[in-house]
Write a structure and sequence with these properties.
The protein has 142 residues and is an alpha+beta fold. The chain has two domains: 8-67, Endonuclease III, domain 1; 91-141, Ribonuclease H-like superfamily/Ribonuclease H (Nucleotidyltransferase, domain 5). It contains five helices and five strands. The chain has helices at residues 15-24, 33-42, 50-59, 62-67, 131-141; strands at residues 8-9, 45-46, 91-97, 109-115, 121-126. The strands form two sheets. Strands 3-4-5 form a three-stranded antiparallel beta sheet, with helices on one face. Strand 4 (109-115) and strand 5 (121-126) form a beta hairpin. The chain starts with 7 loop residues before the first strand and ends with a helix. Residues 15-67 form the Integrase zinc-binding domain.
């Protein structure tokens, strides 16, 4: 590249899989072609048609086509500040998943809790996303 950093050259057969993984994989985020391309370059991959391939594949992403234009914030309800009195008094809890490529132990979900005041994070992998998992997580980790 122009900065003199050596990049890994990718063969044509592997390139589409890399673009798909960086665009819509576990850490993808379904960003536009240009941003996806920069993510690929940042980790050190390169091939001659990278920009063209990323733009082409991102434009054909079914999820992006389906949700394009639907994720607009409604301006009708103003945000209300949340008053937090003490650390670890109020938590936000969410599941991440269903992860398409589970761990070797069969974990397909991650339960995450974030303290509203300190932003402290607790997270564990789980096999299921159920109320029982939440209860066990709260009892053992929060």
């Amino acid at each position: 590249n122009p900065e003199g950093v050596l990049l890994k050259f990718i063969i044509e057969d592997v390139a589409p899989k890399i673009v798909v993984d960086f665009h819509g994989g576990v850490c993808g985020g379904h960003f536009a072609g240009r941003f996806t391309t920069h993510k690929i370059l940042r980790v050190g991959y390169w091939w001659p048609t990278l920009f063209k391939d990323a733009t082409f594949l991102v434009r054909r992403c079914e999820s992006c086509q389906h949700f394009s234009g639907r994720m607009k914030a409604s301006g009708s309800l103003p945000l209300q500040p949340v008053s937090i009195e003490a650390p670890f008094k109020q938590w936000g809890i969410e599941f991440i998943g269903d992860i398409s490529d589970p761990s070797s132990a069969g974990h397909k979900w991650i339960i995450v809790a974030i303290d509203y005041l300190t932003k402290w994070v607790e997270a564990i992998p789980t096999k299921k996303a159920t109320h029982q998992v939440v209860m066990d997580f709260l009892l053992n980790h929060i």
